[in-house]
Structure formats: C-alpha cells, structure tokens
What we know:
Blueprint: E1 12-16, H1 20-33, E2 36-40, H2 43-52, E3 57-61, H3 67-79, E4 84-89, H4 97-102, E5 107-110, H5 115-139, H6 150-167, E6 172-178, H7 181-188, H8 190-207, E7 214-219, E8 222-227, H9 232-246, E9 253-259, H10 266-281
Parallel strand pairs: 1-2, 1-3, 3-4, 4-5
Antiparallel strand pairs: 6-8, 6-9, 7-8
The structure holds magnesium ion.
Magnesium ion (MG) binds next to β6.
Amino acid sequence: MKKASIDYSKEHLLVLEKDPHFREELLRTLSFLGFKADPATSVSQALEMLKENQFTFLLSDLTGPDSKRLKVFHDVVLNHPEVSVLVMTTVPKGYPYKEVISAGASDFVKKPFEAGELEAKVQRIILDRDRRAELSELSITDSLTGLYNQRHFYTRLKEELARAKRQFRPFSLILLDLDDFKAYNDTYGHFAGDEVLRSFGGIISNLIREGADSGYRYGGDEFAIILTEADRGMAEEICRRIEKSLEEKEYNASMGYSTYSTGMTVKGLVEEADKALYKSKLRIPDDVG
Ligand SMILES: [Mg+2]
C-alpha cells in the first residue's frame, strides 16, 4: 500500500477512550503519524462533538460485550455516514466481531495497540471509503460533460421539492435543448457533436453557483439546471447569461424554466419547464398561447 497517496492531514479522528494513559498514548501516536485527533471521555461528549465538528473517524474503546455501545456505533453510522468507526478492544478473543461489524464498525484494533497495525487499518478504511465515494460519484455523472446524469436529476429534484415544501422557499428548474443538433452531427460528425455537448456543459457549469445549483445532461442534447432558492427573476437571469455565452458560439440552445410554487409536483415542474422550452424552440413570444 502506498502511503504517499493518502493525505492524513485531511482526516479528523475522534478518540473515545476513558483510560487517560491509553488515551494520551493513542493521541500521541496519531499525531506522530500526521492525523488530526481530538479526545472524548464519554459517549455523550463524543456524540456532542460529532454533531459540532466534521470528523472522518471515530476510534472507540469497547471493553467487553456492550450492547449499549454497539447501539451508539449503529447510530453514529446512520447519522454521520461520513464517519468511519474503528473499534479498539482489550478482548480480542470471543468478542462478537460479527455484531460489531453489523453495527457498522469498519474494523477492530486490539489493545494494547501496535502503531503499525493501527495505521494499516486506518489506511485501508480510507482507501475503501474514497473508492466507494469515487464509484458513487461516477454512477451519477455524465462522462462526456462532467455534469450529473438523468438518474441524479430526479433524485435531486425530489429532494429540492421536499426542501422547498418544508422551508417555504422557491427554487427553479431550467430545461435546455440544443437547436438543430442532429443536423450539426450529420454535417460535422459525432466528434464535433461531442465537442459541442462538452462546450455547452462547460457553459452551464460556469454560470451556476457552485455548491448550490446543479447542472445535468438529461440525455442526448437535452440539459437541465436546478437552481436552489431561486425565483423567476433568478431563473430568467441565468437563461439570459446562457444566451449571452452562446452569442460567440456556432451553436444555439432553446430553454424554458419553471419555478416551484405550493402544491407543485416533480412532474408538474418538468412539464411546465418543458412547455416553456417548446415555445422558445418555436420562437413563440410569452404572451401568445
Ligand atoms: Mg435539440
């Protein structure tokens, strides 16, 4: 395993250990290895700290079978999916390993611990975690444009709708479609066509707010944007900016948007944006049917 590829300084470990001697030794070792680590002396303190900080690991003592502690691990895994749980125990033999792993812990370390073993286990958990994150990112990404794909579009749209209902905040949806893309493909070939799709994906990525809005390749030459906490004015502004970016390009796109209002469904939002898109495609002004 190559250590150089893992940046330990990105990890933040919470060490839950009552024994002060062992706790200090553990913190010293972790800090020597390059990890950021903080101590907790009780379960309630650890849970409080997990809520307030962004930890990536919980290293927790577990002396003897303790069903209450197992429940805590389970809750941590459910409520903080970004936290990997590593259990340290003085009872290596006969301990219900299966139960601890079922409760969501990633692995076991024996007490007293060996620094080498501890490091190897933490390393493996980091590599597994990062690989899983990469795969899940790939499964929702459109490989050509780097935008999200259609599958993720519906997931996010549902989430955004639920949030808008809960918080009484508007959000908007823009649907976009390249004009005469088939003719472009037929004339210039598929490589040139792909280049247009990539370029349009780039325009979308550049114009939306990072960390708030999200861009999607819906399929073929159709795209979508979900604008968080955005009213009609904001949706219009984004459409206007996209049109402006297209002025210097050799292709064009039509677009339509819808803005959430109470009682709207995912289907309703998509249909309304789709109708507006269709009108824009036919170049029908807004005030005509
Ligand atoms: Mg089209």
